[in-house]
Specification:
heterotrimer; A: 361 residues; four-stranded parallel β-sheet; 15 helices; 8 strands; globular; B: 335 residues; alpha/beta; 7 helices; 20 strands
Chain lengths: 361, 335, 109
Amino acid sequence: MKRSSWTDYQKDIADDNYYYARSCIRQNFFPGSEKVFLDILSKDLGRNIFDDPLHTSCTGIGYHSDVVPLETIMTVVARQFALMSEAGYENFTSSCITSFGIYTELLNTWEEFPETEERTRENLYKATGREFKIPKNLSHTSDVIFHHREEIARKAVRKLVNVHTGEPLRVVEHIGCHYAKIFPKKGVGGSEFPYVLAGMVESWGGEIVDYPERRHCCGFGFRNYLVQANRGYSVANSHKKLESMAPFKPDFIVCNCPGCTMFLDKWQYTIAEMEGTTYGQNGQGIPVLSYEEMAGLVLGYDPWVLGMQMHQVDVEPLLDKLGVEYDPSAKYLGRNGKYIGRPERAIVNSCSEDTLYKIRR
Amino acid sequence: MKHVIIIGGGIAGMQCACTLAEKGIATTIIEKDSDLGGKIRSWHVLFPTFTPADQVLSAVRHRLAKAESVTIKTGCEAVKITPKCVTLSTGEELTCDAVVIATGFTLFDARLKEEYGYGIYDNVVTSVDLEQMFNKGEVRLTSGLTPRRIAILHCVGSRDEKVCQRHCSKVCCVTGVKQAIELKKMFPAADVFNFYMDIRMFGPGYEEMYREAQLMHNVHFVRGRISEVSPTIDGRLQIKAEDTLTGRPLKMGIDMLVLLIGMRSNDMNPTLEAESGLKCQPSGFMQPKDSFLGNVESPIEGIFYAGAVTAPKNIGESINEGTAAALAAAEWINK
Amino acid sequence: MINFGFSISKPRTIDIDRNNLHKSNEIMHEMPELQTCIGCGTCTATCTAGNLTEFNFRKVHTLVRRGEYQGAYVEMNKCMLCGKCRLLCPRGINTRGVVMLIKRKLGDF
């Protein structure tokens, strides 16, 4: 694809000294991703990043589900910024797209309507006695990885290449609506031709698949999927994307947003169990990775350290293509070799047969 | 001999020079390109009569060649204008008795509408690109094949807050209908779909041509604006729109997308405002003295306007304004 | 198959590539004037059936032109053939003829 426009949408991304805000969904569904992000930043790249146990959820899920009012979320966000200031940081990096969207939106709101910032300062002071500074730089954690992508490429132990064929892996990327659709200039590459994940994939030797429903929402939509009766509409969005990307035979999907990562991964299970349809090659699902996991694999991290056993769709076929060495039987051994349980057999789980691997308990 | 400087050597400026010459007034045409003619040079045939654009331009060129006391300065621009003196980009200062500004418009850059993939995907072309293909006598996909399904999108860079172009460019609707008919004549088996927000057929014979496109050429008109273009696995393009008359989203694979790009105010207009004390409208086009009684006059006596510098206009209107501005200038000089 | 308590919503997009345009093309071939409809809605405004039922002549024939035939025959049966729409159509379309043609072509749908 000819790409002429993304350079117009460059954003400033801090180079070092980050205050890290975790994601509710990512830390629960892909806990290894956040751990490995911190490790990549501090160990591989030698950057300073502060993982603050004091910060809370941004309450974005509640906000988007109409249970948390705007004033409340403004105060919560203000508290996160206060914690950042107190810890001596100026660069805020958020692990979650929903949060990133909210931080961006609120910073803009405060700029456009200064009286809302004043009120927030008052509310925060009354509630906690804290005061905050506006971050000098606000980046999503994928922006941070994007910023360091060439350095990661130099330190890489493998490329996103099929070791059997020598061909670049075909990657579908999904950046998540709240990354750039609300404020296109705050996202690398804008919203129509987003470059944040594509840039990583290209730097690391893979090939981006540009498919018709690339920009379509995964269907997360908060209040829409929270109610069971509405989930048919929610899942239909992922369904639409998967139907559209399947003919391109992607080797994996890489997601920006924790919610999208979860949805595109777990809805594949749902669709397979409801309709018997799978979208990957050989009747399996398409593995869905977070960009931290993708970076981790490129840098040679063990897939089970990356937390890839937590995925709904098995990642082993992808690991084999990448030539990653891993212990199949250790998949469900957590820290200190403790068995963490394993999922029931499902259509999208290609590798869960005990006969294939002697899974250690 | 009295002397009028005409800024811009497009069809309006050329016509203006011809008329002034006939009145015995000397003119100098300042043209930034290397040749006169302006945008019409790359047009194929003109709506609604399918008259070759070249035929119209040649007629005016012919008259201009016979006109006396016309000086043509190409490859330079006017940077500062007063009724008595024009300063050129070369630093040269030309004295005169009146000035006609006929600098026309700037074409909208389709790349700004990123969602349509111009410059990114193959076979996304602008109406101007298509005119040039017609001129070469060949419309082909990049694969070399002929298109089987073509979509023509109206209002690209017009009536669009997102690209700061609120105005209607007026001529794109009828251009889209004209191009649809040309394409159908070229590829009778192809399906042509025009996606529009409103169809504005403002001139004589336009509405009739619209009906002819529907009735005789089976051109499909869908009331809805394309929201997004993306590539398909078989190398085609997928478009999404709402078929607003049925109230449902619509999508289809197409071989070629034609973007009817709008007429933007000339990029030079802010300079005119800053350097010469003239006034721009909110749309960016120059503000004439009066929309009814002084269409070809600027608020400064002795400076006149002709053509698309004040608003989107078709060729006939631009030629008429060339004449009108010449008559107004002549009258003012001889006052 | 597992019942999760919901089903996957079907897309309501008109997918021109998936629709069989054969019948639609036949209809347009027999009555090219239908293509001249500009969607003014005068037909529906005056329609005997449209004022008392969900019947919308303009919408049904537009859908038929896009290859959406489902239910078109049943809908057209609501027409009383009173002829007022034809009297008013600014494009001079033989609207009663359209009703009869669609019924003839799409009886199976």
